[in-house]
Amino acid sequence: MGDDKPSFDKEVIPLRGKIDDIDSQILSLLARRQAEVEKVVHLKKKHHVPVYHPAREEDLISKLRTEAKKACLEPDFLEELYRIILRQSRVKQTDKMVHKGLRPGASILIIGGLGQMGNFFASLFQKSGYKVKSLARHDWDRAGDLCKDIDLALVSVPIDKTEGVIEKIAPFLSPKTLLADLTSIKEKPLQKMLDAHPGPVIGLHPIFGPTSGSLDKQIIVVTPGRNPDQCRWLIDQFILWGAVMVESTAKEHDDIMGIVQALRHFATFCFGRFLYEKHLRLEKTLEFSSPIYRLELGMVGRLFAQESSLYSEIIFATKERRDLLKEYIVSLNTHIEMLENNDKTLFVSSFNEIARWFGPFSEQAMRESTYLINRLIERF
Question: Which of 289, 234, 264 is nearest to 103 (CA)?
Fold first, then answer.
């Protein structure tokens, strides 16, 4: 084998040289691609076109997967590679769009602007040329001055404080001022804004945390209130920053978020509580864990790594949410008899019935979860 090494070295050196040349060409092409992206950014800023174009991205991915097969390349590999390239492109575009304001010079007051979410949006508005002021708890004696000539009053305070703050700030607002909130409950805050303020009103719920760093592909739910034409500039500004805007009634929003937020967080809390009561050694379970268990336990740990008061406000926000969670607990109790009777037939029957109800989403869920699991395997 030792005698073969000089021969190997001699033959592999020119091959590695060719690979290095190809890598240099790839880098050069990526740089050229980015230069063309910069031109697209310029046009988008000029014509107020949003960064994210989902149809174009999916068309491009589909085309590349087809071309990959023709070139005898793995389609999944090429898709993953290009999704990284496309995301990087979007983030750079969004960063540049941040400096583009639809109403530069407009004055914005963020009530709760020193909080994480308020500060996140304050930064976005400031970078886009807006005049931004914040009203914190100790600033109410200056509320009249802070509200003078403002175009937007944005309420960003905890759920249990939102209605009271809306009622408190409304008397200081001009009828022309747009009043909006960022609360994860919409029915009562939206109604409170409509009752307290005669001008334009809109409800907003960012479906992401303030540590996201960017609005790229982030969802913001919009619940219309009053004078939608006077609210449109704010929606368009979020779109320009890369957000995906989803319109909903306040009731539909609250009903869905009861499942998406309250039930999910409560079920995670219950699982974590059960593990705690069993006095399990978490690190030991990880030694025996499958990637999917590690992923699920990671989501449980993520919950308990954050502020308990934040989740208590989300889970206990309304009577409707609490009633939903009681229904969930009752539903769990209905399975006790099945376990006591060792009724595998009933389990299989129920499983298949639910699987039919999930329908095609199960296949999508399998693909998406497999992607996450594979990334987890690569990391750990």
Answer: 234
Report helix, strand or coil for 349: helix
Distance CA 93, CA 50 (A): 10
Residues 6+ apart with CB under 8 A from 236: 48, 102
Contact 234, 206 (CB under 8 A): no
Q: Is 97 within 8 Å of 242 (Cβ atoms)?
A: yes
pLDDT, tens digit (0-9, with 9 covering 90-100), for 37-77: 888 877 877 776 766 666 678 888 888 889 999 999 998 88
- C-alpha–C-alpha distance, residues 112 and 43, integer Å: 35
Cβ distance 99 to 128 under 8 Å?
yes
294 within 8 A of 305, measured Cβ to Cβ:
no
Q: Per residue in 82-103, pLDDT tens?
A: 888 888 887 776 666 556 788 8
Longest CA pairwise span in the chain (Å): 90
The answer on pLDDT for 194 being more than 70 is yes
Taken in order of first residue, the domains within the chain and their CATH numbers are 4-97 (1.20.59.10), 107-248 (3.40.50.720), 253-379 (1.10.3660.10)
Q: What is the DSSP string of 284-299?
A: HHHHT--HHHHHHHHH
For helices 344-358 and 361-379, the axis angle rounded to 10 degrees is 100
pTM for the predicted model, two decimal places: 0.74
